[in-house]
Amino acid sequence: MSKFNMLAVKPQQFDLLINGKIVPSSSGKYFELINPSTGEVFGRVADASKEDIEKAISAGQRKFSGGEWPGMSVAERGIYLKKIASLIRKYAKELADLESIQCGKTLKQSNFIDVPTAADCFEYFSNIDEPLKDRENKIDAPVKSITFFEPMGVVACIIPWNYPLIMAAWKMAPALIAGNTIVFKPSSLGCASIMKLAQIMKEAELPDGVVNIIATTNHDAASVLMTHKDVNMISFTGGTKTGQEVMQLASGTTKKISLELGGKSPNIVFSDCDFEAAIGGTMSAIFMNQGQMCTAGSRLLLEDKIYDKFLAKLVEKTKALTIGPATDYQASFGPVISQQNRDKILGFVERAVQDGAKLACGGKIPSGAQLKNGFYIEPTILTNVNPSSEIAQEEVFGPVLAVMKFKTEDEAVQLANDTKYGLAACVWTKDLTKANAVAGQLQVGTVWINTYGGFYNEASFGGYKQSGFSRELGMEGLLEYTQSKNICMDQTPGGKPLAAGWF
Question: Fewest CB atoms within 10 A around its CB: which of 1, 154, 419, 445?
Answer without folding.
Answer: 1
